[in-house]
Batch of 4 targets.
Target 1
Amino acid sequence: MSHQIKLTRYISNFVDQLYRSGVRNVVISPGSRSTPLALTFAEYKKFDLWVDIDERSASYFALGMAKKQKEAVVLVCTSGSAAANYFPAVIEAYYSRIPLIVLTADRPHELRDVGAPQAIDQIKLYGDYVKWFHEMAVPSDIPKMLTYVRNQADRAVRTAIMPNSGVVHLNFPIQEPLLPDFSISGLWGHNSPRIVPQMNYQLDETTLTEILTLITDKKRGLLVCGPDNTEGITEAVNHLAENWNLPILADPLSPLRNGSHSKTHIIECYDAILKMPEVRKQVKIDFIIRVGAMPISKAYLQLLQENTDMEHFVIEAVEGHREPVGLKTHFIYGDPVKILAQLANVSLYYDPSYLKAWQNWNDETKQILSEINQEELTEGHTVLGIQSVIPKDQIFFVGNSMPIRDVDSFWFCHERAIEVFANRGTNGIDGIVSTAVGMSATGKHTTLLIGDISFLHSMNGLLLARNYNLSLTIVLVNNDGGGIFSFLPQAKQQSPYYELLFGTSQSMDMEKLAKAFDINYHCPKNWQDYLDSLAQSYEEGGLSIIEVQTDRNENVLWHQTKWNKVGQKLLGLMQKNENVL
């Protein structure tokens, strides 16, 4: 049997099984050694294929699709440094629990470590950041090997998507010649259905009793929902809050702030509420029950650091240890929705005046944060404007550094079903544009809020958006550098090296960049211009950049003025409600 036939049957059975096991999207970066994989995916004709010349951009694009669709996306690249360019996205997927299947073509064993071109050590290239690594066997078409290759494809999909979701890396040693023969009979082989196991992680009675023993006599509790896209989590958290009469601190990356569900118990302004240390000193907490990852808010983290004697519960699916504060924490492992339902069925009801106090603080804070000077256009306004104009059932993707913090402060509860996402696994600025483009590739118009440094760092993603005619509104906050550092201690030291090392002014003409990629461009000068630009971008669809030019120093002063006003207002309210604090 010729090498070409062995290669063709081996790869075609693998590709067929990936589809049967649930894969629908394949992102390919062109290369020679990966030719058999790339051609076979194309020949199969059932996958949605996306081709990106930049592996780093491709990997974040795949991550964006997988994050939105909650299903495994395949990445394919050639041998050598191409695979290394996937590494940042692999790390992000690991910490964000996003299912990716990375297929790296490799030189055959005899060409490794002998100075062959485009050959690096790809064995366990991503270290412990993958759930499973496997070096695939040399292609063969004997029945046992075709069963083997199908088993590996199915295992890859199951491993990637099962809790906790993550990355699988399969390395393919491929000998030349590299061209498959798609004329052979029975190309896609034969496959039998596979059983999909059902997960059922609930609390046993002993554990449930232990939890209740620790909180039944407490007075001041909080439910906290961090970044979490578990199906049914909104209803489950709300149900528990209503039954126990507790406030919910809802992170902007949780689904609780958006949609038609009840928001009576939701405190979305908790980050601004807790900014001032004098306010936090007045807030005493007896216990916290958290689902999802650690919230974005630094003020919330400080609240935990200042209340170390409380009972702290974190509900995790299957496994994990997401607790960066170092508190004595009770980890509860299982299906968060089912565990919350079990807790809600227990008859506990906390003091209504405690919930009412949080609701009053939230209302007063929201009123202050919502105040707008029509002639101004600040970084906080970018969030308020997007929320006021964005149509329902769209995607809002948020860059890191200042944008995500402004979303935490200024994205209020509302009725429209907007999905809010960000790359908070490692909180970096890598691949932000490409991830948002991957989101838009799922068929929904996506709005990206991003800073100028993050934008320049990952603007290769614009090429993919243009090539596939995707629909994306980019709100580009340009403060000519690293605006987040203006809030940190190094900005106050008046060092002669601050601007060089942290300010990092780039002085790029964003309009010219937009023109280079053939993207619609707007540069509003006030609040109404900004709203009009947003509305136009949503009406027209396609690609657009709305550049909001701000000043770093003025931005710091504007935020601090808001937070101080909130803090002073809340301190006055708290003096009247000492008995519930």
Target 2
Amino acid sequence: MSRLVRASAALMLTGAFTVPLAPAAGAAPMEPAGDTAFTLSLLHANDPESQLLAASGQEDFGGAARFTTLVNELRAAEESGALAGADEAEDRGVVTVNSGDMYLPGPEFAASREDGAPFYDAVAARYAGYDAVSMGNHEFDFGPDVYAEFIEQLPDVPVVAANVDVSKEPSLAALEEAGRIAPSTVVETGGEQVGIVGALYPPLATITSPRGVVVEDLVAPVQAEVDRLDAAGVDKIIMISHLQNITYEERVARELTGIDAIVSGGGHEVMANADDALVPGDEVTVHPDTGQPLSYPLLATNPDGETVPIVTAGSNYKYVGLLVLNFDAEGNVTSVSDRSGAVRVSGTGDDAVAPHPEVEAQVTKPVSDHVAELAETVVAQSDVDLNGVQNPGVRTQETNLGNLVADGLLDTGVRNAAQYGVPEPQIGIQNGGGIRNASVLPAGPLTALDTYAVAPFANQVAVVPDLPRSQIKELLEQGVAAAPAASGAFMQVAGVNFAYDPERTAQVAAADGTITTPGERVRNVILHDGTVIVEDGEVVDGDPVTVVTNDFSARGGDLYPFRGADYTVVGSTYQGALERLVTGTLDGRITEAAYPEGGSGRIVVGEEATVPEPGTGPSPSPSPSPSPSPTDGPTAGPTEEPSGKPSDPASQSPKPGNGNGSLPKTGTAVLGLVAAAVVAAGAGGAALYLGRKRKAAPADGAAPDA
């Protein structure tokens, strides 16, 4: 079915299971142009991730409104053949697809969770005119029911996934019954049939919470669906898949037959040719195996010796991919047009496009207004400066803001434990590298947008049940292994006090969490209920301990030695947990007594831990419903960068202080916080908007009139 013929044999893979091909240059057809019977223009995108307003830090690029205009202009040009090359056929068609991650937790997504608001990401997708979309991992960040809501607001666009079983989730099963979710779809274009098969990352449950959704290893079910389409006479087949990185797509391409091209999602790779203009700040991704930049397309060879082009288009509405495939009369691909490549979404310069007026009115304006509202929405009043400076600060020592974020994890873990069938956690662990505001939040009003600045990633609250006490010590050892040097692995904790000696042997952990050098720094560990876990550096025998952390750490981020322990995400991002803590459990008031400057003695240097006072920390009451209004979820795809890498103003090293001017402070000016929200969304999204309507902070902490 698929035989991509290239002029140079050097561009072909040598076998179906060899090492990946170095990225190829543009193709020239081997056969005469007259042998081209049909030209298919494939417009593709992936990972828009609710970046609806503009590319992060690049206001003149990206954005759903400009993206929509560009897609529509390209579709019209491809249908008319206005830009066709000599190798292309007069008979032509156009298909438009997206490979998933249609939305992502963050300030812009939060606009869709307001009472009466539409799903703005679905509104934007409707105007883009997709013929099919794939499932992505982030679609499940709030659980199957929210995903079903999104699909319901995206009428007439099939969601394709050949290796996904949704039968145990009623809301999604109903959509499957109605034909809205299917293994594949067939699009009629230019008098030809084009099959589109979907595939999703098999270990989906390790990076999000699909609940009852089951994802199978994809090769067998995808091949079965391709074979079914082939038997039905469909001789042009595209796979749109969300497999998290393009090397996974390569492996799959070398194992499947009958697929003419693959549109990849989840990896955010920038793939382009030398003459393709990029969004400022972007660079073409280097292939991890060959070390060469990913030119467009990447080629792989299937078991039949046929070459399969693989394409992707960055992320966040920054590019539209254009793959132009030439077919012979038997449905074999004979060439890829040289004009294929990445087309950037620009609002400036020679390639500028105007925002689509309907998308501008129905998406851009209300979402912009919502982000501005976040900057004005007070979620709590703080009686004390909250220290989020990184060094010295959350990456070197206990701070009161670190305690607040860790308490948010423990609060949500306890509150949601019953619903998710896990034990109530006793310890909360937040890696310091995940606290990103890099400043002091001054006493006074704390806004919703402040919480996004503190916790900008799409990391989810994850409960890790019943860890041996020896492993608890190893986790704490990892948190202080780099001390006194600053490290993103330095942990802020809840539910536990501990003492450590930085002069003693530091623990060394391998990439898989195996301890190669045992640590001797952690000397004394006491839970807030008075249970002693470590005494004089030795683990005290006793019951296992349940930990709540974020899913980045639970997966072994910062070399935390969880070592593949099972964990369950419990219905909230860490930003959502922080906001729920301050608005609910703390009733809108952050007191100096509970969160004193310098911390409350949870982490001390020495031999003896501070003895917890009765009732230390917030005490949520478990509830039958999860803290935030949406359900399940987590992240992936870029959640958190390695937290030891400074990518923000945190490289400064201010002197310790108590808010008297020796530390930078973050104000609450609307414009500054709106900018912070855009940065937060670009950093990987961040969290749910708790409830569909916010409540003002209580008396004396009431939000000022907007």
Target 3
Amino acid sequence: MHAALARSERMQDGPVIVDNREALVYLLSEAAEIEHGLMCCYLYAAWSLRREAPEWSEAQHAAVARWRGELVGVAREEMVHLALVSNLLNAIGGAAHLTRPNFPVWEGYHPTGVTLKLTPFDRATMDHFVFLERPENATDADGDGFDPGAFFPRPLPAGRLVPTAQDFATVGHLYRGIADGLAALCAKLGPQALFIGDPALQLDARDLGLADVVRVVDLSSARAALDIIVTQGEGLQQCDGHSHYRRFVSVRDEFVRCSGEDPRFVAAWPCAVNPVMRAPGNPRERVHVVLEPAASLLDLANALYALSLRTLAALMSPHGVDPAPRAALARLTADSMRWLSPLAERLAELPANDAHPGVHAGMTFTMSRSLRMVPDRDAALLGLAEACDLIADRARSLADAAPGVLPGLGAAMRGHCESLHALAQPPRTAPRAPTDNASATLASVKAATLNAAQPRAAPAPKQAEGFCGGAHRADATAQDAPSAPLVQSARGSGVDIHFESRRCIHARHCVLGAPRVFLANTPGEWIVPDAMPAEELVAVARACPSGAITYTRHDGGAEESAPEVNTLRVREDGPLALLAALRIAGEAPRLRATLCRCGQSANKPFCDGSHATAGFRASGERPTISADPLPQRDGTLDVRPTRNGPLDVRGNLEICTGTGRTVLRTVAAKLCRCGHSGDKPFCDGSHARVGFVADGE
């Protein structure tokens, strides 16, 4: 039996002890570091896989794409686990823990069986991933080269107030101890005394587009969060086919078969084991990336990674409680993570150091010592805006190093910079006047920064096949008008899928109806049209109520056509969903759209999901007015937002409840979009009373 496995088995029955809140915070913080580290390791292996090779067969090409999808999919779930652990920490009065040691993690920092280092995709790496994700009853051996070489016991002395590291055999063993500790402390202290965190700091599925992120406010929801982590792969006594463990076993075994059938088959670039940005004090198992353009691209990628962590920290702090900054921080977190993928894949193609011939570079995920929560909200937003601006400038200066990536990254970061500047408030005067020289200086710096923040037109990004420039993620501004949207496209063998994020309301028909096509919150390329049959995929695309997802066919199949009956469905506590041959506010014709009726959208007249964060409440089941048939039920539907007033709709239209019951068949209607009408969904003039302001005709 492998030495590391034998050592871990000696720790199998040892209890994980939780005597007090500090011990629980300590264990959750280590869990956060492990989830964070695993996510990075899985992404590094995924990004090392080549996109194509002339010598590959069609079957080999499909297999590599499948392995990449599985690795990125598991990494995405590790992000879910990190968010859940952060919720657990916030719930018990701790704080989200996003720091971790740099790679490779030194021996003894985690239990002996948890060795974390950056390695490219190969048999040993996949054996290691299987070993890390093994359930408590498994006997899998670790991969070659991952044995730490020594046993580092971490016993907990009895009766200590100061928490310290403890031994656990598997990640599941750790979470079992955390679950037992939570229950014991809840019984000892009482639920009100244990769960003292602010519920407003909790993340949920809407914030990051991660379906399994749940809020933690009591023992029941804490157990639910831990169950999600464990059932996705860490520690199940019986792992199903969707667990991390089984998915990695499947990838490894298929890779072994492919390599056995064709010994010349090479799936991955020869990326470094543990690349580093700085000359290492201990060069063993480290490769210093010094050659250009890899060194400069690595610096840029790590700056983007640091920005994503700082933004996530702000999102999980009091700065992310109010709807507007919360939405902006969530968009920036997702966008910065997504742009890492094409940068990291480009790094994998580039040589790293002449002293290591044939070895390529790779993402290092270098941690910053300055990853901390800035107390002042405006200072935090302005600091993030400045980081976006610096990344945008560097992306522009390095554009030739990755022409299909960097112009789009620069445009996206410029948009985020301007959005954050717009959210930061001018320095306050009375009653919060500066009381000393230091605060006076801060106020003057903020004022100067805000005054100097004149919007700059972003260069039009060059789009590479499979992903877009990203500027569509900026808030709607004059230069980002609906008449000229930037759309992300992914080409398939029979159907091309197009995604316009500004239209997305997270109805989730795509990720639930076609989860292998739409890999939500995945860094880089996340739409895989060929993962399901064309006709089924087309049906899922047509189910998108907002029109964020459209398609183009080149397999001879029919394109989407206007419906035989124009309909408007009133969504419960949400927007107005239209299906018709639409003309909206002078835009190009479209067939599907969701329009804001809460008054809070930053992308009016379209919904942007603000109704959820604003707590908008409005029934979708109002009484029937008239169901008299119309002479004609189809045709063009003209939707005109009036200035500071309702939506003026002209054309044949059947207005329905969310459950499909007809409310009114009409050829003209004025629909509330201020959120205050007492006759929703129809306008009753409340927009004038409440001072509603919105562009229109």
Target 4
Amino acid sequence: MLEHDVIIVGGGLAGCRAALEIKQTDPSIDVAIVAKTHPIRSHSVAAQGGMAATLRNVDPEDGWEAHAFDTVKGSDYLADQDAVAILTQEAPDVVIDLEHLGVLFSRLPDGRIAQRAFGGHSHKRTCYAADKTGHAILHELVNNLRRYGVRVYEEWYVLQLILEENTAKGVVMYRILDSSLEVVRAKAVMFATGGYGRVFNTTSNDYASTGDGLAMCAIAGLPLEDMEFVQFHPTGLYPVGVLISEAVRGEGAYLRNSDGKRFMEDYAPNQMELAPRDITSRAITLEIRAGRGIHPDGSPGGTFVHLDLRHMGRESIMLRVPFAWEEAHRHLDIDAVDEPMPVRPTAHYSMGGIPVNTDGQVRRSADSLVEGFFAAGECACVSVHGANRLGSNSLLECVVYGRRTGKTIAGCVQNRKLPNVNAQSYLNAAKERIQSLLNQNGTIRIAKIRQEFQDCMSEHCGVFRTAEIMQEGLKRLRQLQQQYGQIYLDDKDTCWNTELLEALELQNLTIVGETILTSALKRQESRGAHSREDFPNRNDKQFLKHTLAYYSPAGIEIEYMDVSINRFEPKERKY
């Protein structure tokens, strides 16, 4: 059995920042990170647009209160306002801290950190490194992990959270290279496992974003919060689904329909292309429904709209959004200097996740916590995004709450002993689980069920939803879950068995998908990214509260938890 003072699952921004904070607080604490990819291949590296902070380098009128209000309004008033205050107050400090770690932010002519406009923000406050901001931050954090001696288990897959007597005691993990199994016991466990975009058939997320941490919590009997709120980013490159950053619209690009019209003037006349993502995604979907989408040959009635950069000029495009240009050129052979990009909404971000308090401690219920268990980043729900996240607040959440959770953990482990764990029983159960998958004599390929499941989620729980459509989706999803026992694996090898990994991930995806659909069906209102055509209005009287969904194989039970409202009273959301 392996042992560390702290085990962090996930090598992205939140996990790396937490590990760094623990070691900076007390270098003697033994910290390890386990990640199913190399940390630099974590999905955080794909974050493009930037990170919001009221540095006032471009707009001296900005302040944390304005940032907080924009965030709460953007969340459709479901964000916890105490958590938002921490996020926005600490934002300038964490940006300067990252700069001191070596992050190469883009600069103004006088040398200060540059800031750009972003959707839903009332001021130019988004700090950036061209359109490769996540890449710039993650590389420096990973370099600092080496400097501080953090142990990294790269390309290990965590199978189970060890949770006994309401205390997190460690994890069971599987080495992808050779199929070896290990139990790790620890004084504190942190999940920073990212999102679950692969629940849907078209997503900006990488192939590793399969909701593993959320599913492990659900299986362990812990609730998942606000899972119905899935953000569809307005500008996924059609048909591949990869992200064209909001930074492109922040730099002045236009959205146009088949008539060549900048149609956002009909939906958000003040903010136009920089309206919040939920509003912009619905606008694009409605334009396509109305027959004003575009076909590949340029004729009307198609399934995408155009993102037009041509007026920006080659020099500005190549200087400020080079990666967006590169993506369109690489995938579709489009030169965005001369041609518009085809875009449509793509599943992008999870506002919900593992419920935590503002110190990163995981909740067992609305009013109780799990001992020694923490979470931060996209897999967690603190909740600073509520029903809809503003662009450039996700990198900020990872760094602010990664740092804050790390500080909490550093204090938590000081006087704790390593827990007692019966490692053999967990190893036996893991071996049995893996062997049963390898021995399964089914008739269905994994890829077939996964594709049908992803199609089901996209069709039945997309940008617009109704009870009838979601009930059909749940029925279909349960049929697919029953077929999981009929899959078969061709690869029986112990060396780098990616087929086995996909089988394990598929089970997690279906648990997350069922939680999303059930939570969405129960919320009979439209709020933020959750848009019900059968309940088109927001209903504060009944649903100004967080969803807590408890999974079991027999079904999902829903409870609710109050929203923290201490500064901004809910009102109608207009842009």
